[in-house]
């Protein structure tokens, strides 16, 4: 029972927690944004009146906060802590304008910091040490400790707010679009090192880093290939083929155990690819060779550049935007459907579970910015 509205399932009254449902309040709740936390253990939904937080394993409602009369166009959570980043949609109220980021402390039930900008905020990313604010042509990185600017990054026009950042304590890696078509710039925030990767010939449409920042996945606006890189040295590790027809890649995720890559697109199929187990060790062995002779592809093992088909698939409504993540034991999580793929046989995945989170009217509004 998948909602017909942009990939948000609706939680029926019988399935809700102790909190009152939207139906109890006498109306539907409009969803403005949806995003996973850093390890897919939960997700946050920005609504027209506030935000809701959900556990993903098991799937259940965790908290409901309705502090904003104008709604939240962007809502991000920091793991399952009490810290959230919120951006208002700016309609009907100047109290929460779209050019400010509000850092919400849920223990105190109030915002303790406001970050203001001259242009609308397109995306926000959180890690334990940093707040990352994405504007159309700039990215600001703030230190959580003192709320001062750690660095400012210039990019080409970035209307989708593409940016990803690692969340392990050992690395602080940020990836975002470069200045040229198909470029990705990778910033090591601790060592102040910048690496430019020519990832695709066309514009970048999707980026994803592993939690520790050791692997970067990219897709272009063509949407036919997903490429896997070492983000620190730019080595191409693996190439995955989603299909031969042009597609819009909505979301890419790399599993925490570094075994799987999942991607959702507007073609209505969730693809799961097997990440070769030798990718990390192979990368270490060929790094020097690749950097010295990268202009001659033939000197590297051919299988580095042979694209590989997906290992498992799941059908989704093509008209809906889904964001994808990974749960335990070969479980793929999307905001909409929870499926599992077989570790041995592959092929078509089977739906295990679904939940309704909101009962929504049919609309053409997009609720997930990708």
Automatic annotation (TrEMBL):
Write down what this protein is called.
BCAS3 domain-containing protein
Enumerate the UniProt keywords alphabetically: Repeat, WD repeat
Q: Lineage of the source organism?
A: Eukaryota, Viridiplantae, Streptophyta, Embryophyta, Tracheophyta
InterPro entries under this entry? PROPPIN, WD40/YVTN_repeat-like_dom_sf, WD40_repeat_dom_sf, WD40_rpt
Against Pfam families, the record matches this protein to: PROPPIN
What is the membrane topology listed in the Swiss-Prot or TrEMBL record?
Answer: Peripheral membrane protein
Family listed? Belongs to the WD repeat PROPPIN family.
Question: Which domain of life, per UniProt?
Answer: Eukaryota
Show the Gene3D superfamilies listed in the entry.
YVTN repeat-like/Quinoprotein amine dehydrogenase (2.130.10.10)
Instruction: Tell me the compartments it is located in.
Output: Preautophagosomal structure membrane
Gene Ontology cellular component? phagophore assembly site membrane
> Main localisation, per the record?
membrane
């Amino acid at each position: 029972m998948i909602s017909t509205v942009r990939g948000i399932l609706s939680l029926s009254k019988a399935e809700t927690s102790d909190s009152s449902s939207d139906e109890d309040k006498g109306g539907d709740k409009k969803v403005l944004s949806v995003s996973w936390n850093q390890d897919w253990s939960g997700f946050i939904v920005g609504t027209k009146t506030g935000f809701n937080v959900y556990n993903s394993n098991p799937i259940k409602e965790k908290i409901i906060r309705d502090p904003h009369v104008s709604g939240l166009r962007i809502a991000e959570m920091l793991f399952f802590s009490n810290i959230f980043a919120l951006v208002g949609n700016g309609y009907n109220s100047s109290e929460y304008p779209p050019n400010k980021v509000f850092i919400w402390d849920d223990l105190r039930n109030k915002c303790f910091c406001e970050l203001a900008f001259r242009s609308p905020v397109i995306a926000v990313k959180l890690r334990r040490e940093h707040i990352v604010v994405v504007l159309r042509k700039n990215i600001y990185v703030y230190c959580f400790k003192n709320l001062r600017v750690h660095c400012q990054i210039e990019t080409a026009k970035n209307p989708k707010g593409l940016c990803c950042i690692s969340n392990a304590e050992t690395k602080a890696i940020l990836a975002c679009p470069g200045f040229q078509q198909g470029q990705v710039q990778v910033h090591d925030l601790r060592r102040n090192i910048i690496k430019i990767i020519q990832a695709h010939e066309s514009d970048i449409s999707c980026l994803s880093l592993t939690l520790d920042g050791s692997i970067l996945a990219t897709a272009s606006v063509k949407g036919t290939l997903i490429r896997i890189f070492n983000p620190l040295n730019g080595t191409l590790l693996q190439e995955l083929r989603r299909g031969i027809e042009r597609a819009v890649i909505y979301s890419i995720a790399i599993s925490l155990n570094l075994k799987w890559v999942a991607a959702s697109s507007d073609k209505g199929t969730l693809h799961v690819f097997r990440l070769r187990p030798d990718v990390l060790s192979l990368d270490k062995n060929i790094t020097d060779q690749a950097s010295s002779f990268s202009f001659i592809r033939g000197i590297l093992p051919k299988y580095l550049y042979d694209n590989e088909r997906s290992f498992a698939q799941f059908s989704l409504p093509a008209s809906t935007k889904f964001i994808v993540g990974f749960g335990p034991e070969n479980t793929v999580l999307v905001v909409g459907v929870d499926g599992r793929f077989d570790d041995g046989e592959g092929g078509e995945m089977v739906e295990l579970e679904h939940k309704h989170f909101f009962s929504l009217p049919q609309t053409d509004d997009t609720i997930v910015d990708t």
